[in-house]
């Protein structure tokens, strides 16, 4: 009967792992299980533990890779956000400068219009003066 209990316990340990036994009473340390089992069951247990360990290592590796990608993505997105903010400030400065230039150009345009009107009046007056001079010289 004791041999059957040990065999049942070994099969439980090989499927769950040494600390994952369904009942706290049936939990035994890896050393206890390895010391009491037959070489065949020890080999199966070792393979099972090795398989579980490999699976857990692979899972952890995958999780670390996913976490690294997420951190890099977050780092890159904050970097892009900072770059976009800098570009926006530069664009805002360019827009303000353009607005100032347009205001100055509007003032210059107004002055040029005044000068054009003054020149047209002077041309008309010079035509009148030329007519008067021609009339006086005759």
3D structure, described in words:
There is one protein chain. α1 (2-16) packs parallel to α3. Residues 1-25 have low confidence and may be disordered. With 138 residues, the protein is mainly α. The chain has helices spanning 2-16, 30-36, 39-137. It has three helices and no strands.
For the report, how would you describe the main beta sheet?
none
The best one-word shape is rod-shaped
Which oligomeric form is depicted? single chain
Poorly predicted tracts of residues = 1-25
DSSP, total strands: 0
Compute the gyration radius: what is it? 47 Å
Strand content: under 5%
Summarize model confidence as the mean pLDDT.
Answer: 78
The portion of residues assigned to helices is over 70%
Q: Could you give the order of the helices and strands?
A: HHH
Which structural class fits the helix and strand makeup?
A: mainly alpha
End-to-end C-alpha gap: 153 Å
Characteristic terms for this protein:
single chain; 138 residues; mainly alpha; 3 helices; disordered N terminus
Quick summary of this structure?
With 138 residues, this protein is mainly α.
């Amino acid at each position: 009967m004791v041999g059957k209990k040990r065999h049942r316990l070994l099969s439980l340990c090989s499927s769950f792992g040494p600390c994952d036994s369904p009942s706290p009473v049936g939990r035994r340390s890896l050393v206890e299980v390895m010391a009491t089992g037959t070489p065949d069951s020890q080999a199966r247990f070792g393979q099972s533990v090795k398989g579980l360990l490999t699976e857990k290592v692979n899972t952890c590796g995958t999780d670390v890779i996913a976490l690294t990608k997420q951190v890099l993505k977050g780092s890159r997105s904050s970097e892009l956000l900072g770059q976009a903010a800098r570009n926006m400030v530069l664009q805002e400065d360019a827009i303000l400068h353009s607005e100032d230039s347009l205001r100055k150009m509007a003032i210059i345009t107004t002055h040029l219009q005044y000068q054009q009107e003054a020149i047209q009046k002077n041309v008309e007056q010079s035509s009148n003066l030329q007519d008067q001079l021609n009339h006086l010289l005759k």
